[in-house]
Amino acid sequence: MAEEVQFSVDIEKIRDGAAILRLVGEVDVATAPNLVSSFRDLAEQKLTEVVVDASGVSFMDSSGLHALIQGKGIIHDAGSRILLVTSRPVRLLLEVAFPEPLFAGRFDSLEEAMDALDAGS
Question: What is the CATH number of the domain that holds 24?
C-alpha cells in the first residue's frame, strides 16, 4: 500500500495588503497544482506583499520548482512583492537550478522575512 503524500497550503492575512502563504510537506507533481492555485487566489486578493513560507517543505521536485516559479510570476504580474522563506531542500534545489538568485527576497527564517517586510526592503 502506497503512502499518501502529505501537503498543506494555508493563506494567512497578516495585515492590510499582506499575507503569508504557508507550505508544509512535499511539493511534487501531485501537489504542485494546489500551490499554483493558491498563488492565483493570492493574486485575486490584490495584495501588495506576499511572504511564501516554505520552511515546512520537506521535499520539492522539478514540478514543485516550476510551480514556485510560476507563482512568482503570478504574484509579480498582480503587482505584489514576494518574499520567500526556504527550507533546506528548497534552498538547495534553488541554488542548483539557479546559481544567480531567482528570488531577490529569499530568507532562511520567517522572522527574517517579517523583519524585511516591516522594514519595507
Answer: 3.30.750.24
3 domain residue, yes or no: no
In this structure, are residues 117 and 53 in contact, taking their beta carbons and an 8 Å threshold? no
pLDDT band for position 87 (cuts 50, 70, 90): very high
- Contacts for 4-12 with beta carbons within 8 Å, 24 or more apart? 5/30, 5/31, 7/31, 7/34, 9/34, 9/35, 9/38, 11/38, 11/41, 11/42
pTM for the model: 0.91
Per the structure, the complete domain to which residue 85 belongs is given by 8-115
Q: To the nearest whole percent, how much of the chain has pLDDT over 90?
A: 80
Helix axes 88-97, 62-77, angle to 10 degrees: 80
Q: Cα Rg for the chain, rounded, in angstroms?
A: 14
